[in-house]
Amino acid sequence: MNFELTEDQLAVQEVAREFAEKKLKPRAEEFDTEARFDMDLLREMGELGFLGIIIPEEYGGGGMDAVSYMIAAEELTRGCASHAAAVGLSNSLYGYPLLTYGTEEQKKKYLPGVCAGEKVGAFALTEPGAGSDAAGLSTTFKKTDNGYILNGTKIFITMGAVADNVIVFATSKKGSGPRGISAFLVDKDAPGYEIGTIEKKMGLKASPTTELIFSDCVIPQENLLGKEGHGFRIAMSTLDGGRISCGAMGVGLAQEAFNIAVKYSKEREQFGKPIAALQAIQFHLAEMSIMIENARNLVYKAAWKKDQGQDYSLEAAQAKLYASEISTKVTHKAIQVLGGYGYIREYQVERMYRDARVTELFEGTSEIQKLVIARYLLK
Fold first, then answer.
1. Do 127 and 107 sit in the same domain of this protein?
2. Phi, psi torsion values for 278, nearest 5 degrees
3. Domain-terminating residue out of 119, 152, 178
4. Which of 44, 256, 363, 367 is catalytic?
5. Domain boundary among 229, 253, 274
6. Of 44, 113, 222, 331, which residue is most buried, by most CB within 10 angstroms?
7. Is residue 180 a part of any domain in this protein?
């Protein structure tokens, strides 16, 4: 097995790391405190190719491989997880289903602007009564002579407050299950479309998480994504790819917290010597390093299988589950290494701990990942 990155992948890593160090990290605390997403930085990430890194060049993307995408996601997360989340959204949750199931007209209309950072796309599946049970949607659609009418409410929609276009999942009839679900491209100026509550959160504060309300929302026929009744399939295949990028974000948060803990342990003196000389601290650091390396390998393996055109659902779930859980563990240990300083905002590991916690929840909770893994193991 070859664990070396290619020249192109190393170039992506270098550019992403430099952007994170110069543009994201110095302002991450500011973004968190003000709960503000910087749209200018979004455009810069678009100009650097991150927002469409796996989207083909003909639609404004970079046409690169999934491993490169995970490398970029990890490095950008080390700077600011809230802004890195936009990269996962544009490539995976919005870009993938549009690229895979959209018509040529839809792809040409919506993808270039999102890849460039000039437009924002979002993915709306979750509802107040339908989280892990994605088939239990209450948002409905009704077919008309000219298109469709949507009614219902979506919650926890990443970047929903600033999205120009949203992929919305709705059912033909409540209780109809997976076969009744279809997907629609809904423009922000569609009649009956309304932005609801913008949530106040524990972490990822700069990334707006929003309620979206559809009241007799009018959708033209050409904005159906894929075929009627194929929405559940679209959603599940989309989440497979998104889970890998969630894992990459978990690795990025863990790596940055680990780096801070190592640096601090070499500088902080107690009992007449740096705390790095204390076995208790060394054990923490050793465990952290192993968890990070294992998580990164799982993420890269899942991405590699995707690049090879192989079934990667199992590996995606494994990567997402492990990387998200060790992200919480490593950031927790980083706080412990820093002691009281880890609990205050100056050293930023407390923010990373808050940001890491949601990686165990979005795009399928840890419990859902275990169910997916078990299903594959017991085939």
1. no
2. -85, 135
3. 119
4. 363
5. 229
6. 331
7. yes
How many C-alpha atoms does 93 have within 13 Å on its Cβ side? 29
1 has pLDDT over 80? no
Q: Which residues contact 200 (CB under 8 A, 6 or more apart)?
A: 35
Answer yes or no: do 249 and 367 share one domain. Answer: yes
Could you tell me where the beta strands, DSSP code E, fall in the chain?
121-124, 140-143, 147-158, 165-171, 181-187, 193-198, 209-220, 224-225, 269-270, 273-274
Is the whole-model pTM more than 0.85?
Answer: yes
363 is catalytic: yes
Neighbours of 197 (CB within 10 A): 12
For residue 52, the enclosing domain spans 7-119
**CA of 150: how far to CAs of 69, 128, 168, 197, in Å?**
34, 16, 9, 19
As a whole number of angstroms, the distance between CA 191 and CA 285 comes to 55
Q: How far is CA 91 from CA 40, 110, 131, 138, 347, in A?
A: 18, 13, 22, 27, 31
State the total domains in the chain: 3
342: left (phi over 0), alpha (psi -120 to 50) or beta: alpha
CB 106 within 8 A of CB 234: no
pLDDT tens, residue by residue, 79-122: 999 999 999 999 999 999 999 999 999 999 999 999 999 999 99
One domain for residues 131 and 111? no
- Give the number of other CB atoms < 10 A from CB of residue 341: 14
CATH code of the domain covering residue 332: 1.20.140.10
The verdict on residue 311 lying in a domain is yes
Q: Judge whether 149 and 218 are in contact, CB under 8 Å.
A: yes
Domain identity same for 111 and 78: yes
